[in-house]
Each structure stands twice: as C-alpha cells, then as structure tokens.
Amino acid sequence: MDLIRKYFPGLSQHQQSAFGDLLDLLPRLNQQVNVISRKDIPHLEERHILHSLSIAKAFEFPAEADILDAGTGGGFPGIPLAILFPHCSFTLVDSIGKKIRLVEALISHLKLENVRTLHSRMEQVDFRFDFVVSRAVASLAKLNGWVHPLFRPLEEEDPSERGLIALKGGDLDQELLPFRDRVELFYLNRWFEEAFFSTKMIVYLKF
C-alpha cells in the first residue's frame, strides 16, 4: 500500500481498505486461474493497481459517468478506478470466461456496487458510455473500431468530452499517426518516479 498512499494521499479509510483487500485477494484468486502472470504478482501494486490509477492523474471523471473497461483481463484498470470513483458506473468486458469469473469474485469480495461485468466480445457490446478505458489490449486502430459506436451522444447543452483512454507504452509513432489530430498524450513519468513508468503513457482519443 505504500506506493498507492504515496501518490494518492487523499484516499478515504474505506478506499485504503479496499485497495489493501485487492492486494490480498488477487494473488490467492489468481492461483486458481493464472489470469495474471505469476512473475508479475510481486509487482501487483506498482504494475497493475498504480498503473491503472494513473488515469486519475489526467482525468477526473464526473459523478454518474458511465465507463467501459474494454478487455479488462484481471480487472484492470476498471476495478482500481471503480474504488477511486465510487460515484461512477463501470462495465468490465472480456471475452474470456475465466477472466470474467475472477473479476466477478473480486467485485463480490470487495462489495463494489458500482461495477458490472459483461462476458462478451467487444464487437457485441450494445451499451452506451461516456468514456472507454483500456490497458494493453489492442492497437489504437482496433480499439477505435470497437468503441466508436459505443459513446453516448452529446447533448447540445453538455460541454463535457467523450473519449477512449488507453494505457500504452513504447514507440507509438506509427500507431498514432492516423489519429494525430484527435489524440493527446500524457507521459506517466511526469507523476511517477519509478522506472516502470518511464516508457508508459496515457493515450487519449477524443470522440
């Protein structure tokens, strides 16, 4: 919990307890299904939870926002963000049954009332959202194709934005080229000093 407290010192006692429970629960549940690489488990706080929470350094989701986690895997970034933003609604989608079952177990143990799961391919999702978040799932072109139809239309009097928020890393020059007029980058080393974050970024694709 030291890293989470370091970068998010304003957490409530309830949120701190939830993150502590997540750090305790996930390794035990993961032993049964191996959704997360076992070599990554010792780095769970930094490489999974804190990485997911980095989105909150760049975005403050408005209350009652509907957020889709596309390809949630072991529940990232959706579950940490749902703990951090209890007044938003999160839908965690994955096409692999064992991943969704793990996520459902986490949601149940953590008593997260603002999270639902969907066992589905992204192409079959038929709900509307304000934001889509994603972590190491697919290229931006593929993500764009999946989520483009899923955003709730903006009302004329609604000044808020809609967009895809993707956690990515490495050299993205070619991947981002077709979207250069719509994309904004946030480099994570502006907020986090650990070496893991030196090549990581948030890619925000506006819709």
Question: Can you describe what's shown?
Answer:
- This protein has one domain (2-206): Rossmann fold (3-Layer(aba) Sandwich).
- It has helices at 2-7, 13-33, 44-53, 55-58, 78-84, 97-110, 140-147, 173-176, and strands spanning 66-70, 89-94, 115-119, 131-135, 163-169, 183-187, 200-206.
- Strands 3-2-1-4-5-7-6 form a 7-stranded mixed beta sheet, sandwiched between helices.
- The chain has 8 helices and 7 strands.
- α2 (13-33) runs antiparallel to α6 and α3 (44-53) packs across α5.
- With 207 residues, it is of the alpha/beta class.
- The protein starts with a helix and ends with a strand.
- The chain is globular, with a radius of gyration of 16 Å.
Write the layout of secondary structure elements.
Blueprint: H1 2-7, H2 13-33, H3 44-53, H4 55-58, E1 66-70, H5 78-84, E2 89-94, H6 97-110, E3 115-119, E4 131-135, H7 140-147, E5 163-169, H8 173-176, E6 183-187, E7 200-206
Parallel strand pairs: 1-2, 1-4, 2-3, 4-5
Antiparallel strand pairs: 5-7, 6-7
- Helical coverage, percent range: 25-40%
Largest sheet: 7 strands, mixed
Placed side by side, the strands forming the largest sheet appear as 3-2-1-4-5-7-6
Number of helices: 8
CATH class, named Alpha Beta
What is the third-level CATH name, the topology? Rossmann fold
Mean pLDDT: 94
Spans of at least 5 consecutive residues with low confidence: none
Number of strands: 7
CA gyration radius, whole angstroms: 16 Å
Please tell me what the overall shape is: globular
Name the CATH homologous superfamily.
Vaccinia Virus protein VP39
Distance between the termini: 35 Å
